[in-house]
Design a protein that fits this description.
- The chain is α/β, with parallel strands linked by helices and about 350 residues long.
- The chain folds into two domains: about 110 residues, Aspartate Aminotransferase, domain 1; about 240 residues, 3-Layer(aba) Sandwich (Aspartate Aminotransferase, domain 2).
- About 35% of the residues lie in helices and about 15% in strands.
- The protein is globular and about 65 Å long.
- Bound molecules: 4'-deoxy-4'-aminopyridoxal-5'-phosphate.
- 4'-deoxy-4'-aminopyridoxal-5'-phosphate (PMP) binds next to helix 3.
- It is found in: Cytoplasm.
- It catalyses: O-phospho-L-serine + 2-oxoglutarate = 3-phosphooxypyruvate + L-glutamate; 4-(phosphooxy)-L-threonine + 2-oxoglutarate = (R)-3-hydroxy-2-oxo-4-phosphooxybutanoate + L-glutamate.
- Keywords: Amino-acid biosynthesis, Aminotransferase, Cytoplasm, Pyridoxal phosphate, Serine biosynthesis, Transferase.
């Protein structure tokens, strides 16, 4: 059986070239006689892999020297706690709640200090990004937190909030490396890699140097201190070694594709194919405010739960996998990350047209 078009929100589709390359290196990585999975993380071969991956990421994102790059574990969810534990010096942080993941981060932070919800789009089922140009930022806020791309709802911050000089912390799990970013605008950029970069089990944290201190909240576990991981270059303990290796391959793939500006163009082109169809369809419709639409996650509905279920079932039979919307919102969602080829989106739209004609 061949590969299908996989629209999963994560773990998600990876570039076929990368999968083939890692398959080719499975039994004998570059003459070492072993797979990267079997290799000591302290070996010379592995050191080259992790250092190379970091350098390629630095090149792709143009990461300045005063930012450290960490490859950690615990998923994006562990960062919900690690961020307040390390950054809440004044025990105050401001959260912009634009979806379930931002809300979870906000609720977690509230365990450690005063977490303020300074804006939210929950009143309209997180279908838009609130105006963040003049928010009531707390005077003593240690940071302002956003989830930049909302995987479940399909919204994205097109402009970053005005933090009035406070440190910006962003969860970019579902838009990581999908377009160029100005790293200097953030204190921390982090994300789980299982959507746009690699296999689940790795979380990448890009953190500005001045935020890395020993002064963490009392009781912060050693494993949850950024400083420990920085000092040990992501090798305080055994890192998610194989996952980091695959991430490194994806970084090289992205470089070969032409980098993040090229990815942005490709992603805009792919998303436009789907959104343009949705905008003129008489059956399907997008569920979020047009200006805030994500390039990565595209939710849509027919307005009829039975018809939605029929669509998902028939799409699956036709080779379009994982189109069911998140369990909390229903409907459909097509996640079209970097590695989803344009042909996959075109084929999906053709299928939707056919379904529409048959179900008018
Ligand atoms: N943030 C965002 C934006 C996500 O989409 C997800 C996962 N789907 C998470 C955080 C949680 O990630 P993890 O499962 O790696 O903890």
């Amino acid at each position: 059986m061949g590969r299908i078009y996989n629209f999963s929100a994560g773990p998600a589709v990876l570039p076929e070239e990368v999968l083939k390359e890692v398959a080719g290196e499975m039994l004998d990585y570059k003459g070492t006689g072993m797979s990267v999975m079997e290799m000591s993380h302290r070996s010379k071969a592995y050191e080259e892999i992790i250092k190379g991956a970091e350098q390629d990421l630095r090149d792709l994102m143009n990461i300045p020297d005063n930012y450290k790059v960490l490859f950690l574990q615990g998923g994006a969810s562990q960062q919900f706690a690690m961020i307040p534990m390390n950054l809440m010096k004044n025990k105050v942080a401001d959260y912009i709640v634009t979806g379930q993941w931002a809300k979870k981060a906000y609720q977690e932070a509230a365990k450690y200090g005063k977490a303020n919800k300074i804006a939210s789009s929950e009143d309209k089922t997180f279908s838009y990004i609130p105006d963040c140009s003049d928010l009531p930022i707390s005077e003593d806020a240690d940071y302002v937190y956003i989830c930049e791309n909302n995987t479940i709802y399909g919204t994205k911050f097109k402009t970053l909030p005005n933090t009035k000089g406070k440190t910006l912390v962003a969860d970019v799990s579902s838009c990581f490396l999908s377009e160029p970013v100005d790293v200097t605008k953030y204190g921390i950029i982090y994300g789980g890699v299982q959507k746009n970069i690699g296999p689940a089990g790795v979380v990448i944290v890009i953190i500005r140097e001045d935020l890395i201190t020993e002064d963490t909240l009392p009781g912060t576990p050693t494993m949850l201190q950024y400083k420990i991981h920085v000092e040990n270059e992501s090798m305080y303990n055994t890192p998610p070694a194989y996952g980091i290796y695959v991430c490194g391959k994806v970084f090289q793939w992205l470089k070969n594709m032409g980098g993040l500006s090229v990815m942005k163009e490709r992603n805009e082109e792919k998303a436009a194919i789907l959104y343009d169809f949705l905008d003129q369809s008489e059956l399907f419709k997008g569920t979020v405010c047009k200006e805030d639409r994500s390039l990565m996650n595209v939710p849509f509905v027919t307005g009829n739960d039975e018809l939605d279920a029929k669509f998902v079932k028939e799409a699956k039979a036709a080779g379009f996998e994982n189109l069911k919307g998140h369990r909390t919102v229903g409907g459909m969602r097509a996640s079209i990350y970097n590695a989803m080829p344009k042909e996959g989106v075109i084929a999906l739209v053709e299928f939707m047209k056919k379904f529409e004609a048959e179900n008018k």
